[in-house]
Amino acid sequence: MNTLSKLQSYMTGRKALLPGALILSAISTIIGMLPYIFIWLIVKELFNSEANYSQALINTYAWWAVGTAVAGVIIYFLALTLSHLAAFRVETNMRRQAMQKIVRMPLGFFDRNTSGSIRKIIDDNASITHMFLAHQLPDLAGSILMPLTALVLIFVFDWRLGLASLVPIIISMVVMSFMMGGKGKKFMKDYMTSLEDMNTEAVEYVRGIPVVKVFQQTVFSFKNFHNSITKYKNMVINYTKLWENPMSINTVIINGFAFFLVPTAILLIGYSGNYVPTLINLLFYVIISPVFAQSIMKSMYMNQALGQAKEAVNRMESLTDVEPLPMSINPKNIIACDIWFKNVSFSYPGVEQKAIDNISFNIPEGKTVALVGASGSGKTTIARLVPRFWDTDTGQVCIGGIDVKDIDHKELMNNISFVFQNTKLFKTSLLENIKYGNPDASAEAVERAIDLAQCREIIDKLPNGLNTKIGVEGTYLSGGEQQRIALARAILKDAPIVVLDEATAFTDPENEHLIQKALGMLTKGKTVLLIAHRLTSVMDADIILVIDKSKIAEQGSHSELLNKQGIYSKMWNEYQQSIKWTIGKEAQNV
Ligand SMILES: Nc1ncnc2c1ncn2[C@@H]1O[C@H](COP(=O)(O)OP(=O)(O)OP(=O)(O)O)[C@@H](O)[C@H]1O
Ligand SMILES: [Mg+2]
Fold first, then answer.
1. Which helix (H) or strand (E) holds 306?
2. What atom of ligand 1 comes closest to residue 356's alpha carbon?
3. What percent of the chain is modeled with pLDDT above 70?
4. With a 6 A CB cut-off, is 213 part of the ligand 1 pocket?
5. Which residue has the higher pLDDT, 91 or 303?
6. Going edge to edge, which strands form the sheet with 368-373?
7. pLDDT tens track for 360-391
8. Regarding beta strands 416-419 and 497-501, do their DSSP bridges make them parallel or antiparallel, or are they unpaired?
9. Which atom of ligand 1 lies nearest, measured to the CA of 371?
10. 568 C-alpha vs ligand 1 centroid, how far in Å?
11. What is the homologous superfamily of the domain 2-318 according to CATH?
């Protein structure tokens, strides 16, 4: 029942819909029993009065049987209407609340949960809940009321025959509750986990097909997907086997009600000597027993559905279980833009190893600090702590002397432009993509940002210029072009602090030159944290930090670091080699 009240909490307004559906379906259950009683009354009349039965009475019973049957169906239909209305509401609200929570998640949340998996979890679980509420909930009332009505009827007619007809039902209930207990509950959880795994792997597989084709791998990439299917298959088979015996016993017992009823009736007849009333009562139980059996089956499926709905709600809620970043009770505004990292350590949630370890440095206002270092050394992680993708474990990140945790969140976002390593453009017009940086910008400001970001030629070659939609009708931009658009967006935002995670992929020299120029425009006069993958872009930085295995290994200006003959000078030599190599290769091609 806990699940029901949880679901009810997703109903905003119209709280009466769910209870209404339950009450109507309860009424329809009771009315639905009446036709059986009228049919039995007809049989009784035929038996009792032998040849001279009353046709009029039989007609009346018949009409009542038809009437109550029709009424039962109509009321059940109404119950379904209400339950559907409730289901749509709950589903919409579940989706809405999940989205509202996701918006408040720390930015780092989106690293760990891909947009595909978030959508899948919300979609799947919201629709399971919908199915449960709309289609199965109305039966809940029936599955509780039916056995109760049965108990009443048992004492109305012949309690001895009633008990006999109850025996199989009681046995079946014991078997069922045993099966639904511990193992059954655990299964439901495992079942949904492995179903989710299988779906995720299928998405990953489809997404990876281009790579698979290029590398001519078929079996290996398929392995994860295949394993998830095998796991799912084994789990279902094991569970089915677990049910094999209890289910067979249950089906036999429930359908074998005559096995208990008939001997009891024979005994009763032998005992009283008068077979007519016993036979008539026996007939009643023969008519009604299958109805009870069916209701028990229903309640069995109900239990399962309830478990599934509970699991769905839990999964939905645990998706957004991550605590939103704590907000300062007394948020401050930014007064200066120098950035301080003071003994900062951080490890990703669930990862023991520190991604950055006791890092301290300072970016004076208006200066540029560049981070270089091997892949995985922690550069992106450092950059992400400035706009509070995550909070530090120990130490402080301060802007203008104020801990970023104490800065008003909106103020923080307004003052930082963050250009990601892998820029994503939205599937909308180029203009909207650029204006994302500053929705109120004037047309002139947009044009200026486009020029500064060296995007003019990109726009000129598109069919509808700035109004061209990206990612549809064959208008795609190259990686380098997308980066320049992202830079235009950042230039338009004109925030005093710029955090730049340079793209790893090398572009052609022409594009590289343009990006370099655009970067220069974006960072002019700003406080900049630059992660560079091309050493040419760090040469002019005021300070270069060499990050190695989560720590600062060296720091200084370009020439200072070259003189040190350490990691940086080695990197620089390798970089020079690679340039020579490229030039050499180009010369060969001429
Ligand atoms: N969202 C995450 N969850 C868990 N671990 C992560 C996450 N992001 C990065 N890491 C780990 O933290 C370490 C530092 O990663 P980071 O992205 O900061 O490296 P990087 O220096 O930017 O590398 P690159 O030059 O390839 O961009 C790596 O070991 C990486 O595996
Ligand atoms: Mg990185």
1. helix 275-319
2. 14
3. 93
4. no
5. 91
6. 416-419, 497-501, 527-531, 368-373, 543-548, 551-556
7. 999 999 999 999 998 899 999 999 999 998 89
8. parallel
9. 21
10. 20
11. ABC transporter type 1, transmembrane domain (1.20.1560.10)
